[in-house]
Amino acid sequence: MALDADIAAQLTHNADGLFAAIAQERDTGTVLMMAWMDDEALDRTLTTRRATYWSRSRQEYWMKGDTSGHTQYVHDVRIDCDGDTVLLVVDQVGAACHTGKHSCFDTPSLVPGDGN
Amino acid sequence: MALDADIAAQLTHNADGLFAAIAQERDTGTVLMMAWMDDEALDRTLTTRRATYWSRSRQEYWMKGDTSGHTQYVHDVRIDCDGDTVLLVVDQVGAACHTGKHSCFDTPSLVPGDGN
Q1: Chain B interface mutation, best of A110, A111, A114, A116, highest count of B Cβ atoms under 10 Å
Q2: Domains held by chain A: number
Q3: For the whole model, what pTM was predicted?
Q4: Is residue B81 included in any domain, yes or no?
């Protein structure tokens, strides 16, 4: 498999050949996480409709949920205006965050008096 | 000014001293854009409540809307679980994208039959 050439041409890769991927929950609009992809990860994501990232720490592909069961079923994918980020709209099974929280951004607010 | 030390300690910076910043619209949940910050940009954002990024191409701070008028009024800021991304919840004036579109992700879907 290889990523469609027209899609690959729209992407701007960093020095490691990667681009950012934001996962947003379809039903709620919640921003779940940010991770990284290369062309192969995006191809796998589009082909399988399950979000697949490149793990920078483990240096391997990582289909979300493979070990945790917390799969992300991909409904939509968009590349941003300058090509260095993709937005995945997903149906999230279970928790998106390795901490067990639904979103990786379910953390204390930095803005006093706002948020939680 | 300097970023609060407790906040700075929660951040994981890349080789350029930067971390990712996602802006999400408060009212609609729309993911508007992804850009970059350093500690000073986050401090300015928290202090002024106007989203301020670090422009990698221009190598300068960039208060969103300074030239375009398309200010992002910051309602909430969260750091993600591993500290390399912040999520800004904003009220967006006008278009977030330099193309004139409301969101930088207002682009064709890569998923046939879905999206638009």
Answers
A1: A110
A2: 1
A3: 0.95
A4: yes
